[in-house]
Amino acid sequence: MQDADLAVQAPPDELIALDEALTKLAEQEPVVAELVKMRYFAGLTLEQAAEILGIARRTADRYWAYARAWLHREITKTDTPGTQ
User: Fold this and answer.
1) Cα 79 from chain centroid?
2) What b/e readout covers 13-39, taking b as 16+ CB neighbours within 10 angstroms?
3) Which pLDDT does position 12 carry in this prediction?
4) CA distance 67 to 84
5) What is the DSSP letter of 75?
6) Contact 71/18 with Cβ under 8 angstroms?
7) In a domain? residue 28
8) How far is the C-alpha of 33 from the C-alpha of 38, rounded, in Å?
9) Which of 29, 11, 37 is closest to 70 using CA atoms?
10) How many contiguous H segments (helices) and E segments (strands) does the chain have?
11) 9 found inside a domain
12) Residue 32: which domain range?
C-alpha cells in the first residue's frame, strides 16, 4: 500500500500529469491501465490484480513493468518544455 500513500502525497500537478498519462494509456492498452489503477490506487498486489483481470501472474508482471516505463516516459515528456 505504499504506492497508494505516495499518490495521496503527490503534488496536484503530478497527479494531473499521471491522470492524463493514464487516460492515454487506457486508450491504447486498457487492461494495462486497469492493472495500474488496481495497483496504484486500490493498493492491490500483482497477484490480486491478475486474478481480478483474469490474466496470469507473469503477464501481470510484464504489464506492470511496461506500464511503469510507459507512464514514466509520458510524464517526463510532458514535464519537458517544448515537447509533447
Assistant:
1) 17
2) eeeebbeebbeebeeebeebbbbbebb
3) 80
4) 19
5) H
6) yes
7) yes
8) 9
9) 29
10) 5, 0
11) yes
12) 2-79
| Amino acid residing at 43 | G
Instruction: Please give the grid coordinates belonging to residue 60.
Output: 501481470
Give the predicted TM-score (pTM) of the model. Answer: 0.76
What confidence category does residue 77 fall into, taking pLDDT thresholds of 50, 70 and 90?
confident
CATH number reported for the structural domain that contains residue 56 in this entry: 1.10.10
Query: 29-47 pLDDT, tens per residue?
Result: 999 999 999 998 899 999 9
Q: What is the residue-wise DSSP string for 2-38?
A: HHHHHHHHS-HHHHHHHHHHHHHHHHH-HHHHHHHII
- The domain tally of the chain equals 1
Residue 84 domain flag: no
